[in-house]
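Appendix B, example 12.
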Amino acid sequence: MAQKSNGNESESQPNLEKENFNMKWPPNALFPLNLPSEKRNVKQEVIKDINSSENYLINTGFSSLGNIIDIFNTEVDMSTINSVRILLGSEPDNRPRKFWKIVDLQKEIKDYWLERGYSLLKGGNIIKTIEYIRTGKLHFKILDNFHAKLYIGKRYAISGSSNFSKNGLSQQLEANVRVDNNSMIIFEKQQYEGMEEIAENYYKLGQDYKDEIIDLLEKLMSLTSWEEALARALAEILECNWFKEFPQLYEKLNNISLWPAQRYGLGQALYILQTQGCVLIADPTGSGKTKLISTLQLLLFYWLWESDRMNKSYILTICPPIVQNN
């Protein structure tokens, strides 16, 4: 006879790792389940279907921002996706993490967030997710009291108990069925079409959630630390990568024979001019200041021209007569 827990001992829970060695399970492609000992889970089939569909529709009662960020930045190839639409039954869990994976971001996206003082190291994946939403790769709607779980791809549809969450897709004991739109079995094809129609109807009932989910994602962002801000500034000065933002100028500079120290000096000098308005170069005799400064004039003139400030590009050089011809 089963005994009730006395409050001091945890109730007995089934352990599939130990108990399913003599159990037989249907294929994961037909019935997606979370069975760690079988090295299978629901997410395997969902990710496979998303990556093979230009458009994908998810109906889920619950999800978390962490799961959304991780999946669409590390497991889904968003370059091949036209759009993924997600209908939520409740506001997603937005508990922050200490660290998100570092990712590559386009320069204009980096500059946008850096100007607002956010950390790229701790928020790269969050930023990419926000960009996916803004560019229409990801769409979100919300529908009160919604509890269904439907995943509709180009060929396969999945329905069952799994929410679009880490637990639902990987850890909890779930039961789902996956049907094939290309099946020769008429009943299975009808099942796919019915599941698709249900999912589309529910999605139409939902309210747009774009602004709200962007707001939740932005709240996960961390402000940049002074150490990170200083490190980035030093890297920009020393690496001189900003030269490459001006291809024609970059080509001209490559044709000028400069010493490595002069190249570093150019990067430092122009960066200081752009940010502070003036610069003092105080290198020792014979270090190449004359050539460095004449090249700096070219850089400064080109930069002012590119920024439509030609009327402010007048340059006066004061030098000893002996170096005037140089």
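The chain has a mean pLDDT of 79. The beta strands are 55-60, 83-88, 138-142, 150-152, 156-160, 176-180, 207-208.
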